[in-house]
Amino acid sequence: MASLRLHIENKKSNKELRNICLYAIAKTVSIFGSSIYSFALGLYVLQITGSALNFAITLILGTIPMIVMNPFAGVIADKVDKKKLVVCMDVLSGCLLITVYILSSYYGLNLFIIYTTTFLMTVFTTFFGIGLEAAKPNIVSKERLMSLNSISKIIDSISLILGPMLGGIVFAVFDMKTFIIINGISFILSAISILFINFKLCEQYINKECSIREINFIKDIKEGYSYLMERESLKNTFRILISLNFFLGFAVTVPLPYIMNTVLNLSSKHFGLIQGTFPIGMIVGAIIVKKITNHFSYSYLLKKISFMVAIFMIVSGAPVLFKSIEVNKIVFVTMYCAIMFFLGLMIALIDIPLIYFMQREIPDEYRGRVLSIGLSLGKLMQPIALALSGLLLNHIPSYTLPIGGGIVFLILNQAYSNKLNLEIHSKGYSVERN
């Protein structure tokens, strides 16, 4: 009997490993394809038009539809078969790009085709992302869910490093139309990989009564919002993630490039080096997060990491105060490399366990909607933070944004983390609601 149980467990373990490998392949193809395509397409638009406005429109079409469509994608992810959803989205992305290749061969790659393609690709990618995120607890056991989230974060981080680099190479070496057909085929291959993933391997997370239901978008989105609002632990979790997104944009994303390039006059080579350390930090954080959450209370960890993130935000504004002192620029470069590396590492240590908690806490029939609402709010905060930070930079000293933002972030997150008592580790989690 014991040997039979062991055989069954080994068989399930092998299926989980296969799911993880196929997931990694599919996500890598989709994420890298989208990242390289977006960067190369932006360069192409600048080349053919020379207009910053047209370039900005391309960026907007890659962002706004995602914010708007996220809640609807969450409803669809909760109401239909998630495997069919993500496969269909990859197939649609592939077919769209192949169609664009054919059209551009006859009519050229004009702005109308580029804008339409960018909009549709953003919609398809949004549905793909929500469907795959909501399905994670169904394709691996709770023991491996943290590892799957770490792999996902590593893929995202590597794409941040290599995406622009490969996009630049693609733009320089290949004709844009050639790359479009290659990217289209890669999405089809990603869909084929997903076909072999078992989306119902962990049956305990699947509510079969909710698999086929009538879709009412307004009602369903309200249900997801009500579910979120009724649970204090989830509300505080989303508050932490949303405030993190906002203050990173407000205190880091806009002020730091301005400080480095305009105030401290660092070279573009130095700036690129500093920017590259952030995703490297996220990769390291994703690798070590499982061991850390097994040894420390996550409530304790969250308070300490939030404190450190705020301190690094504050410190990032400090060099401006010492600009009048003769300091070798290498000192500033080294300092900012360390700041960005540790910010990336600590954000991974916050993000991955919190996402794990939400995946485990939210039942399958609500997961897509609740996650999509949180993601929409987080995405909405980013342009607000960027616009506000950019506006203030024209009127106040640059160092006040990272210092002020860091102080406010510290106060807010200490308040939220005191209300949230989580124990998260690779074998499970627990919640104590105050």
Structure description:
It is found in: Cell membrane. By secondary structure, the chain is mainly alpha-helical. It contains 15 helices and two strands. It has a two-stranded antiparallel sheet with strand order 1-2. The C terminus is likely disordered.
Offer a quick outline of the entry.
Keywords: Cell membrane, Membrane, Transmembrane, Transmembrane helix, Transport. This protein has 434 residues and is mainly α.
What Rg do the Cα atoms give? 22 Å
Main structural class: mainly alpha
Order of helices and strands: HHHHHHHHHHHHHHHEE
What is the topology, as strand order, of the major beta sheet?
1-2
Topology, number of strands: 2
Q: Within the CATH hierarchy, at the fold level, what is the topology of the largest domain?
A: Growth Hormone, Chain: A
Distance between the first and last residues' Cα: 44 Å
Number of domains: 2
Dominant shape: globular
Helix amount: over 70%
Q: What CATH architecture of the largest domain would you give?
A: Up-down Bundle
Instruction: Report low-confidence residues grouped into runs of 5 or more.
Output: 424-434
Could you give me the name of the CATH homologous superfamily of the largest domain? MFS general substrate transporter like domains
Largest sheet: 2 strands, antiparallel
Summed over residues and divided by their number, the pLDDT gives a mean of 83
How big a fraction of the residues is strand?
Answer: under 5%
Determine the number of helices (DSSP H or I, runs of at least 4 residues): 15
CATH class of the largest domain: Mainly Alpha
GO molecular function: transmembrane transporter activity
Membrane topology: Multi-pass membrane protein
Subcellular location: Cell membrane
Organism: Bacillus cereus
